[in-house]
UniProtKB/TrEMBL annotation:
One matching Pfam family: Sigma70_r4
Keyword entries, A-Z: Cytoplasm, DNA-binding, Sigma factor, Transcription, Transcription regulation
GO molecular function: DNA binding; DNA-directed RNA polymerase activity; sigma factor activity
Organism: Undibacterium luofuense
DNA-binding region(s) from the entry: 205-224
This protein's name: RNA polymerase sigma factor FliA
Domain of life, per lineage: Bacteria
Length: 243
């Protein structure tokens, strides 16, 4: 749609692409923890759409929707990174745990115990469990995983289906889903049970504790450790090409 002067009608472009913003927001929300509100994603996406409308020129040689999708997704990811609440120090501690889990798994040929991981990190068992407690909310995929400033290449890149660099499509790809299933299957039985109760049965930590006969705090520790095992598994499969 164009104005009388032959320019793209910006108000028309804005109105017509509101459903696109909502669709992209729900696609992203499906891959994020419950604490993320879809309305916040939509709001950020609308800012991205407005930016796309204001910057777009027909001479770009691309369809507006193609250009807008990049701006909308970028705005949503920026919003997620800005609201990411897990402290950087905690994230770094969990990466150390992921590395220890991976190295011990390779050395022992089985999932390492908490005591073994603690010893590898030169921590007492109590100190190790405190680190797990501090990382409550540890996630399989972090917002910074899309554009990790600490590494030139992130393990998610190995699950790309093409060279477009689209992180949302990476997560939707069959290879990534299969790898996640493999990571769950590789968990110790107790942690596998916990993940099933939490994500499939949608029980809260207190309810899971009642089922497993442990405290809510203990469930949080085991959840953090299970997610760290899964991230370590995915990293290993990415680097060895087994995903």
């Amino acid at each position: 749609m164009y104005t009388a002067s032959g320019k793209s009608d910006k108000s028309y472009l804005l109105r017509e692409h509101v459903p696109l913003v909502k669709r992209l927001a729900y696609q992203l929300k499906a891959r994020l923890p419950p604490s993320v509100e879809v309305d916040d994603l939509v709001q950020a996406g609308m800012i991205g759409l407005l930016d796309a409308v204001n910057r777009y020129e027909d001479t770009h040689g691309a369809q507006f929707e193609t250009y807008a999708v990049q701006r909308i997704r970028g705005a949503m990811l920026d919003e997620l990174r800005n609201t990411d609440w897990l402290p950087r120090g905690v994230r770094q501690n969990m990466r150390k745990i992921e590395t220890a889990l991976s190295e011990l798994q390779q050395k022992l040929g089985r999932p390492p115990t908490e005591t073994e991981v603690a010893k590898s990190l030169k921590l007492t068992l109590s100190e190790y469990q405190d680190v797990l407690n501090d990382s409550g909310g540890h996630q399989l995929v972090y917002y910074e995983d899309f554009h990790d400033p600490d590494t030139k290449e992130h393990f998610l890149d190995h699950f790309c289906i093409d060279d477009t660099g689209d992180p949302l499509q990476d997560l939707l790809h069959e290879d990534f889903r299969d790898a996640v299933i493999g990571a769950i299957d590789a968990l110790p039985e107790r942690e596998k049970l916990l993940m099933g109760l939490y994500y499939e049965q949608q029980l809260n930590l207190k309810e899971i504790g009642a089922v497993m006969g442990v405290s809510e705090s203990r469930v949080s520790q085991l959840h953090s450790q299970a997610v760290a095992r899964m991230r370590a598994f995915l990293r290993e499969r990415a680097w060895t090409g087994l995903a």
